[in-house]
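Archive transcription. Copying these from loose printouts into the bound notebook so they stop getting lost. Printout 1 of 2:
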Amino acid sequence: MAQGITMIAIPWHFTNVLNMPSGFGIITMVATFLSLLWGLYAGVMIDRYNRKHVFLAITTGGFIIMLLVSLLGFYLGQLPMLSVAFIYCSMFLIFTVHYPNLFAFAQEITDPKDYGRIISWIEIQGQATTAASMALGAVLYGGARSGEISLLGFQVKLATVLRPWELHEIFLLNAITFLLAGLLISFIRFQPLAHRSAEISGVLSRLKAGFDYLYKHRLIFIFGTASFFIFVTILITGFYLNPIYIKNHLQQEAGVYASYEMYFAVGSLLAGIGIRTLFRKSNTVAAIIIMSLGISALYFICMWNTHLGVFYLIGLMQGFGNAGTRIMRMTYLFHHIPNQVIGRTGGVFMTVSVILRLILIFVISRPFFVSGNHVTYSYFILALFVLSAAALMSVFYTRLVALPAHSDIRLADKGKNYNQISKH
């Protein structure tokens, strides 16, 4: 919830309040660069420590950071630009840990036969929260001076007039949200099913183990990287391009940005509910290739579309394709990467995605792409990028489908309990 509210308020604040789309591009590049090395260490940390404790660490960190910056805003009456940029970068780094840790934890406590189902439920829960946070973020940041708010593109009448919240007020709410998250997580009790042996080597040696695994299993590296291309572009459009596209090309306001994100979340929810049924007669690799082709086509459509309804439909389909790909991708990786190194291999994939994002953001943040409606050319670049992923997976399709699952040892088979591995 906290990440969703923050990530709708900050991009719109820089793009439309401060009128600094190029400056926001630089901040996005800085945040992406910081996550480069952090993503690798995060993978080591996820495999080294109790994953519940990792969750508690990032929620505590988010609470402290949000609270301090919020108090600064109350003291000064407004927030300096650098403090807002600091929050944005911090949320980026928390985001880099959150999902890899969540999936590693899910694999650790789940029987292999239930991988697809648990990943789908994670997606449903996550996107429902995202939709709620986007709606709340739009109301808080945009307010409702006329007594109406835009929800999924429709005007909804409220019983009262709401003033827009200041950023530091929103950050205080987010600090409380992080605190509540930490309290809820502290009550979780679990028993791992996957065996993780303690590693006493140094950080670099443990980091190297992730690279070594992917070097020995190059097909998994190819699949894990190519299937991440959609996610790379979704991060770029969601955190950077969409506010510019909505303002310069569609010539709309902040409510459209929030409504698009909600349609995206609804599409993701639908994917969580029905993606495995839709592709029940196909394998995961074929499903991802098909969805990559679909997302590429949507980016081409974005170049010429000026109709708001079509834009919302694109958001719905993007959400479906992104979440559907993530469900299929993680199911495949769960079956082919042991829990012992799932965090570190995820860190490697995240680092590759960060490098790709840096390159793409560097290109599309040039003044040419943010002036007028030239932002549409950025979507052409993203379309070709995702298309190349579909082509790469098609080349290795037969070998990827035939790749056998890993032989991870399950604790249930060895009669071990949680206390025997919890120390590491």
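Printout 2 of 2:
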Amino acid sequence: MLLDQLIQWDKELLIVLNGFHTPWLDPVMQLMTHTLFWSPLYAFIIYLLFRNFKNQAWFLLIGVGLTLLLSDQLTAEVIKPFFARLRPSQDPSMAGLLHLVDGYRADSYGFSSGHAANTFAVALFSWYTLRSIYKWMALIFVWAGLMTYTRIYLGVHFPGDILAGIVLGLCCGALGIATSHYLRRWLGAAGEVA
């Protein structure tokens, strides 16, 4: 069956990608997987929004807040319970095949990745909003990719979990962009975001 073959390929790809580890990188990846670690980046993006859009940045923050709420709740409260796919770190068929850092296993279900959904939603929103002002803003997708790779490195997500999270995040990011535009027009704010 095709689905069984895809699941098998997903497991095999995880074993390969998770295999790129070294002892010195373990604590780095463990640190980088936490949202709090990236707080300076989030603060910098907020600064750029207010610097360039002044009071209209509040509409953008509402849009990105709704984007994160949607992507986070869809992954945690709808998709993960519905599919109930065990994380690789919790999957008995993967026991002994993965590099797990300091016994970190996360909770039971991993499909789809909330980290991937949230980071790619923020990345798309930030890039779209600031792309015409800062050409280097596309680098935010490097951050999103790095953040999501930490989940594979730590053995708590299959690549398929990450891919599904990325797709969901991009959709939520697009919805957040549209919401911000709508709020700015509806509440009488002048000008276009991008």
